[in-house]
Design a protein that fits this description.
The protein is of the alpha+beta class. Helices cover 32% and strands 17% of the residues.
Length: 419
């Protein structure tokens, strides 16, 4: 009996010594809920545990310091995982370190504090980022103009810009929705809030907000934007001091020759674009490819570009996925004309047939930004009033994975990239 107890004690002790890591696979075949897996990693970092992101290994797998709490959470959230020994984890890391492998192990240090810049009601739009953060159980705070102007951004490492118009033209919905109750009410509310904050025009308020966000990035923050928040942000910065809004937006006509006064040196990602003068056209500028693309839905995909994991870990992190081919999806700003992208900005996802960029990344000062075209990765033509996507139906979505790559990115101990 004593011998049996000794053997059992030895086996239990051996298990505790060798089963020291939770391994979360992220390949197509080995993970049943890719989106919630990011939430598990975030949860582990929140609780002070160590983790590694295994770039280009098993779909961008994660290695987390073993803890019963994480194992239990993985079971509850339906995330595929394995308990592996220290010896096996070292073999994996040794394999990844080989110069012949386009792989890298990146240390994740702490959970970033997340802010979403969004009107409190979000009407008339839902938002892919807030939906996937909620689904993955990653906490975030919603902030808006008042908080930004009062420097509350300094409390956060990661900022998402909700579907937004930073030019003060109310999303250029005027042509189709100027009589819609939500449009009329939204315009009134925006004007009221601008006045309360000391501005005579919404465009003036949004410019100052844009400049605060710009300074946040320059100071070391990470900004992620989708759909119209991408190009309208750059347009607002480039049009500083220039009235580009027609009278139905701000009560007075736009400057007659405003195109010649646009300063492209002030933008993050875009250059040499032409603004759309007609106020009833649902488009800001030549940056967006929505009206120029001729791609049927059945063949609308974009490919992720492969980078060197050891030399360029930043874009490699941001493109981790279980497929290199991602379904396309539309938005007010669907994709970016490559002719309008600055040469120092990385294109990470593209549709080569149409020469359009879908997913781009760059640096500004000490910080980073990522622009992702389209509105909802699992709703091809999301329109005003459409029901929101139920992510329980899309737990392995490659398009949503790209968003979550960006969420974890600030956690990583960075190396200087070479590209």
């Amino acid at each position: 009996m004593k011998k049996l107890l000794f053997i059992l004690a030895f086996l239990l002790m051996s298990n505790s010594i060798w089963a020291s890591f939770i391994y979360i696979p992220m390949s197509h075949d080995n993970q049943k809920n890719h989106l919630k897996a990011y939430g598990i990693v975030y949860f582990a970092l929140q609780n002070g545990l160590k983790a590694k992101w295994l770039l280009n290994y098993d779909g961008g797998a994660f290695l987390i310091e073993n803890n019963p709490i994480i194992e239990n959470e993985s079971k509850i959230r339906g995330v595929s995982y394995q308990i592996i020994s220290d010896a096996k984890s070292q073999l994996i890391l040794q394999e990844i370190s080989s110069p012949s492998k386009n792989q890298e192990a990146v240390t994740l240090e702490k959970a970033p504090k997340i802010a979403v810049y969004s009107p409190k009601d979000k009407m008339p739009w839902d938002d892919a980022v807030t939906m996937v953060l909620t689904y993955a159980e990653i906490p975030f705070d919603v902030i808006y103009d008042d908080e930004v102007l009062n420097d509350k951004l300094l409390l956060y490492e990661w900022l998402h810009l909700h579907h937004e118009d930073f030019t003060g033209q109310y999303g250029r919905f005027y042509g189709a929705f100027r009589t819609a109750p939500w449009y009329i009410e939204g315009k009134k509310l925006a004007e009221k809030q601008a006045k309360e904050l000391g501005y005579s025009k919404v465009s003036q308020l949004k410019l100052d907000v844009s400049k605060k966000i710009r300074d946040y990035v320059i100071g070391g923050g990470f900004m992620f934007a989708m759909c119209s928040a991408t190009d309208s942000f750059d347009i607002a910065l480039a049009a500083e001091g220039v009235d580009i809004a027609e009278s139905m937006f701000d009560g007075d006509p736009a400057e007659s020759n405003y195109q010649s006064k646009i300063d492209f040196s002030k933008t993050f990602a875009f250059r040499n674009f032409d603004l759309i003068r007609n106020p009833v056209v649902y488009e800001f500028s030549s940056i967006d490819m929505t009206r120029k693309r001729r791609i049927p839905k059945t063949s609308d995909y974009f490919s992720l570009i492969e980078f060197s994991a050891k030399w360029d870990p930043v874009p490699t992190m941001l493109t981790q996925n279980h497929t290199q081919l991602v379904k396309g999806f539309m938005g007010q700003t669907t994709s970016f004309d490559r002719r309008n992208i600055k040469p120092n900005v990385l294109v990470m996802g593209e549709n080569k047939t149409n020469r359009e960029a879908r997913y781009i990344h760059g640096t500004k000062g000490k910080g980073f930004f990522t622009f992702y075209g389209g509105h909802d990765p699992e709703d091809y033509t999301h329109r005003v009033g459409d029901p929101k996507t139920e992510l329980d139906l899309h737990p392995t979505s490659p398009g949503y994975r790209l968003i979550l790559n960006n969420v974890l990115f600030p956690s990583a101990k960075k190396k200087k990239q070479k590209t």
